[in-house]
Structure formats: C-alpha cells, structure tokens
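Need a sequence for this fold. Nothing fancy.
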C-alpha cells in the first residue's frame, strides 16, 4: 500500500458485480472525485469500527446511506475507471480501509486472488 495511494486495487471488468468486503452499514454514496460525477464511491462502517471505501462502483438499486449489507452481498457494479485516468490503466475497484483514522492495508483483511 503506497503512502499516497491509500488502498489496494482489485482488477474488475466494467459491469462486474462488486461485493461488500465486510458486514457493514452504508454511510455515504458519492463522487469518487470532487466535481466529477463519472466515478462513484461507496463508504461503509463495520460493527467493529472499520471504515471501508470501495471506489469506482455504481451502487445497486436499493443500496443507499443507511443500508445494512453483509459480507459477499452485491452492492454494485464496477465502473470503467479509464473514463478518468485514461486507457493505460487496468479497470479496477479501489478498496481503502481505515480504523481509528489510520489506514489499514486491505490485503491484510481481503485475500488477493
């Protein structure tokens, strides 16, 4: 996990299902980048205090702030991140996790296939 990157990228084809990485409550759905509505983020809070952000995800219908999700539940579909970053970047979902305001390496909690 790079100091400026702040998370882990998991390869995902645009339109591919994206699942919740932990039981959680959705706290926010919004733009991944200020002023750019093409890419979205789903923020969640787990019962044990982790804050999870899954970026470049179009939320499924019914997934909104306040929705309780379970690990493995489909919460949306992967967006084509290349609309912002250009064609050289592999499509992916970016996952970032924090605990007590500190970054947590997602790879310690989510297996990398």
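Here you go.
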């Amino acid at each position: 996990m790079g100091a400026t990157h702040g998370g882990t990228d998991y390869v995902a084809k645009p339109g591919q299902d994206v699942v919740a990485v932990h039981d959680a409550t959705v706290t926010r759905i919004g733009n991944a980048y200020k002023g750019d509505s093409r890419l979205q983020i789903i923020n969640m809070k787990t019962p044990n205090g982790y804050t999870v952000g899954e970026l470049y995800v179009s939320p499924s219908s019914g997934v909104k702030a306040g929705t309780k999700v379970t690990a493995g539940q489909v919460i949306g579909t992967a967006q084509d991140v290349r609309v912002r970053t250009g064609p050289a970047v592999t499509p992916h979902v970016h996952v970032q996790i924090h605990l007590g305001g500190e970054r947590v390496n997602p790879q310690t909690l989510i297996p990398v296939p």
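For context: The chain has a mean pLDDT of 85.
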